[in-house]
Design a protein that fits this description.
CATH architecture of the largest domain: 3-Layer(aba) Sandwich
Number of domains: 2
Number of helices: 14
Strand order of the largest sheet: 3-2-4-5-7-6-12
Structural class: alpha/beta
CATH class of the largest domain: Alpha Beta
Largest sheet: 7 strands, mixed
Length: about 375
């Protein structure tokens, strides 16, 4: 391994290259375009041995990947915002067909109004499509969670979405350790599908089903997505090989905390700085980083929060209810009675500084959703 400076989007592309997909299909959209440009260059110069399929839309891109995955090969696509929404129908088809795949979403606000900056409305809107969802904090995680996602996906035959915050991660240079092909090959061997389209062994895919069979298939999807023993085993295998410490829920300075920030994605980097500042002032506060949103790590969350007060930092809103992440937390903790403060901290790329978060603790009225004005 060696240390390099890469954009988050380049780190994703490098993680894809190490995972050796055979088919890549995508349509450019800000802020994910760097990912696909880098992979296109890799396939053009022979650095990556894959078929790159150029298409006219995101729906065509994921449909191409669906056909390739059904034929039994490892596939990849990337998108953002409206592009992910255009894929929505096929997301259901992919998971329902139990086809493994990795999709990277560069989180970006959804219009209208038109906006190219980051929030998590696009991927959070796909929570119920049957895809696992992993949120990255930095470029290192962006690289590492691509092969991890492939191994999870191919182990339980469900697709995985890896999310990085647009611009904040995708367009920012960071130092990271580049994994070697040898190490990733040891972790992620060649994909051997259990079921695939084979003219020598005809099978039926995508049939219409009656209610009883449909019900059983959906229950099977849910049961397999909740296979935490398998997910934890894969994370531990990667940790042992790469000397990392990835868990579905990262706890930062929570052991003696009586207050907790909870967030997902790049915002956790800012929140760690805020935690350190507040600690210097004598406040016992920690951070929970939600790496996994699907499956929702309920047991891990409960163990982390206990009876602490929780400030949920949202970059998406479930309109008419609460911040989207707040709703997820409340479902995980039910029927516990933790005091939960619902904070909308950033939408459409609204800046968040450490001081933005340290000021939260002075807010008196926490009975309703707090729409926080960030400092300029």
């Amino acid at each position: 391994m060696k240390k390099e400076m890469l954009l988050g989007s380049e780190a994703i592309a490098y993680g894809v290259k190490l995972s050796r997909p055979m088919v890549i299909s995508a349509y450019p959209i800000t802020p994910q375009t760097h990912i696909i440009e880098t992979l296109a260059n890799m396939t053009e110069n022979g650095e990556l041995n894959a078929k790159f399929i150029k298409v006219e839309s995101e729906l065509s891109a994921i449909s191409s990947c669906y056909g390739a995955a059904a034929a039994g090969v490892r596939t990849f696509t990337a998108t953002a915002s409206q592009g992910l929404l255009l894929m929505h129908e096929m997301l259901h088809w992919f998971s329902g067909a139990r086809l493994p795949m990795v999709l990277v979403n560069a989180n970006r606000a959804v219009g209208y109004p038109w906006n190219i900056w980051t929030d998590q409305s696009d991927s959070f809107a796909q929570r119920d499509t049957g895809w696992l969802q992993i949120y990255c904090t930095n470029a290192q995680e962006a690289q590492d969670f691509v092969p991890i996602a492939y191994k999870i996906s191919e182990s339980i035959n469900l697709p995985v979405m890896v999310a990085i915050d647009g611009f904040i991660l995708s367009h920012t240079l960071e130092p990271l350790m580049l994994r070697t092909q040898e190490d990733i090959d040891r972790f992620l061997p060649k994909y051997v599908p259990k079921y695939f389209l084979d003219i020598d062994n005809p099978q039926s895919f995508g049939n219409a089903t009656m209610a009883e069979s449909f019900y059983k298939m959906k229950k099977s999807m849910n049961d397999d997505m909740l296979n935490w023993n398998r997910i934890d085993s894969i994370l531990n295998e990667f940790n042992d090989l790469m000397k990392t410490d990835y868990k579905p829920v990262e706890c930062y300075r929570t052991d003696d905390a009586d207050k907790i920030f909870l967030a997902a994605g790049a915002l956790c980097g800012t929140a760690k700085v805020a935690v350190d500042l507040l600690r210097e002032r004598g406040s016992k506060i920690g951070l929970i980083n939600m790496r996994f949103l699907r499956p929702l790590p309920k047991k891990q969350i409960i163990e982390a929060v206990k009876d602490k007060k929780i400030w949920v930092l949202n970059r998406a809103v479930s309109y008419g209810n609460s911040g989207t992440l707040t709703g997820e937390l409340k479902s995980a903790l039910f029927p516990m009675d933790n005091e939960i403060v619902d904070v909308i901290v950033s939408l459409g790329g609204k800046d968040v500084y450490p001081e933005t978060l340290t000021d939260l603790l002075s807010i008196k009225d926490t009975e309703k959703t707090v729409w926080l004005d960030s400092r300029s």
